[in-house]
């Protein structure tokens, strides 16, 4: 009897000591909202619940320094719900997503321009997509791009072509709560020749967004290169090709998670 009671007590202690974790943790590397000059940015988060039970989701918004984004308001896309602000910790918990349903949450684009990244967590398995939109002051759509966030990785690569004036932008986010990570970014010619290397340091919860030419000023126009990102701890990344107001996502191929 003593042995059985000890066994049951051990199970209770282990259950209480076990850390809670989210069934889904998605890092959205780039979030932009607000107005700069005559341009207004808005970001839409599309959360899909394909399970048979409802999903409670929590969003955490941070700027590039890791500080919470506090001056941010979200609403259901297409004006289907009330406007709600994030709390002082940058947290936002929308109503539970019904079983086999979805919700699209859009930033209002009010106030000054602010940017950063989003962590999406849920005890249920969900899928996440985002959409970045640029409009003028009259609300006319100038550009938009749909984004599917990739997994966190320690080593990843992508192909970047900068022909006809195209720009390649890369956002890197460090989701760690306490670890600073220094990533090595390399550009490699199509024949495998190493053309350049630079280090990017990200503090806990911080993010950086740069054009490729800012990291590598020696990069020539109309030059196609491979970019490798090598980090000691997991990061998440978004890469966009921009040509004027035309944008599309460049997938990052994960070499090592």
Description of the structure:
The protein is built from 2 helices and 18 strands. Strands 1, 2, 3, 4, 5, 6, 7, 8, 9 and 10 form a 10-stranded antiparallel sheet that branches. With 257 residues, the protein is mainly β.
Provide keyphrases for this structure.
mainly beta, 2 helices, 54% strand, 257 residues, ten-stranded antiparallel β-sheet, 8% helix, eight-stranded antiparallel β-sheet, single chain
**What is the helical fraction, as a range of percent?**
under 10%
How far apart the termini lie comes to 46 Å
Order of helix and strand elements from N to C terminus: HEEEEEEEEEEEEEEEHEEE
How large is the count of helical segments? Answer: 2
Assign the structural class, choosing from mainly alpha, mainly beta, alpha/beta, alpha+beta, or little secondary structure.
mainly beta
Quick synopsis:
The protein is mostly beta strands and 257 residues long. The chain is 8% helix and 54% strand. It has helices at residues 2-17, 212-215; strands at residues 24-36, 39-49, 57-63, 73-76, 84-85, 91-92, 101-107, 114-122, 127-136, 141-147, 153-161, 167-173, 181-189, 194-202, 207-211, 224-243, 246-250, 253-256.
